[in-house]
Amino acid sequence: MEKTYYNPSDLKKFTKITEWSEELGNKFFDYYGKVFEEGALTAREKSLIALAVAHVVKCPYCIDAYTKDGLQRGITKEEMMEAVHAGAAIESGATLVHGVQMMNKYEKLSM
Amino acid sequence: MSTQSLHKRANELAKTEKQLEILSNGIFANGELPTFKQKVKKTGLPALRPKQLEVLQINVGYMCNQVCSHCHVDAGPDRKEIMTKETMQQCLDVIKTTKAHTLDLTGGAPEMNPNFRWFVEEASKVGIKDFIVRSNLTIIEANKKYHDLPEFFKKHNVHVVSSMPHWTKGKTDKQRGEGVFNKSIEALKRLNSVGYGMPDSDLKLDLVYNPAGAFLPTDQASMEKDFKKALVDEFGIHFHNLFAITNLPISRFLEYLIASDNYEDYMYSLVEAFNPSAVANVMCTNTISVSWDGWLYDCDFNQMLDLKVNSKVQHISKYNEALLNNRDIVISQHCYGCTAGAGSSCQGTVA
């Protein structure tokens, strides 16, 4: 069998993390469940945010999970891709805004 | 997407034994996932038994003008199994005496049975409370001879239940075939124009949503809201209720799951979403399903797997409701489809 760091079937075992630290694991899953309930934001909106973040943090498990979640909620592929772009724009913006730091340092060091 | 049924293609999944073998082997045989029977037992629930009979569902034939990729009937234009007038008469004899309050005609496209209109006329005379015809919508547009179906349904106070996998063209056509979306929209407009589905109308028009892929349906109420908004805003179309139905891993949907390497993940999703409170109300507990050739089943899915009722009475010609109500329901791993999440039945969620 090919060895890889990521195994898609590990996602199904996610809740097993509780076995080695029950209290913290349970607290995390309670929190996680609560976060994604309907609130000031709809569960649908949260699903799209989760999908965008999943891409930014480059978590293959989360991408699988929230693509499926989006399909179940009737979220269209256009909506999903726009969410990914929103995440990507913030991520590249975060890189580019450091360009100001570079410019500042450049100016400071230059005569 | 194939334009032929599994039967026509002589696909091995056309054999029900093959499907049942797949559903019992692999992850269920090696203990990775519990069988449906084990799961029900482990949850502390009793074995499935019928309650009061409420729905008599009659499949008048597997012929259909569409070849949907998720079809659990393996219906299509190439299927020749059609209920005869003689069997219809046997059904009518039962309809006159049944305690069921709902008569549910399905197919295939039931309208393609040459005796469909006669059967509806005769059945409607009995005065059963809720008389459903499951119409695929496009049949209304398929040929001039079907254009008046909305008026025909209205005349006999039929409750129309139609499939509509999504409010966007792309998703609908991918599941149901090229051009299906536009024809469905036209058919819905025709139904609306005679009063079906209008906000205060007694002419009931409900839609059925099946996920277009290897995932489960979401909350029925929120889906209904999204469907209503999209169909009214974009097309001025009205309907009453949306039934969210889970695709069961049999027939052409099973073929799709296997071909797309989604079978195991899908079964995991179904088992993980097992909802004990859905078990008590699954449709096999209040339904008898009749096949085109008069055999009796616990549900339409068991019919397609040729799992006949576990009773001395197995055919409409020998129908005996009291005897039938005293039976064990036949189960296999496809039953997980009806107990996942909010549950699933031909009338939508059950939990």
Task: Describe the model.
Chain A is mainly alpha-helical and 111 residues long. Chain A is extended, with a radius of gyration of 19 Å. Chain A has helices spanning 17-20, 22-35, 43-56, 60-72, 77-109. Chain A is built from five helices and no strands. Chain A is 70% helix and 0% strand. In chain A, helix 3 packs across helix 5 (77-109). Chain A has one domain: AhpD-like, CATH 1.20.1290.10. Chain B has 351 residues and is of the alpha/beta class. Chain B has one domain (12-32, 48-339): TIM Barrel. Helix content of chain B is 36%, strand content 10%. Chain B is built from 15 helices and eight strands. An eight-stranded mixed beta sheet of chain B has the order 6-5-4-3-2-1-7-8. In chain B, helix 3 runs parallel beside helix 4. The radius of gyration of chain B is 19 Å and the shape is globular. Classes of the chains: A mainly alpha (111), B alpha/beta (351). The interface between A and B is small, with 8 and 13 residues.
Brief summary of the model shown:
The complex is a heterodimer of chains A (111) and B (351). Chain A is 70% helix and 0% strand.
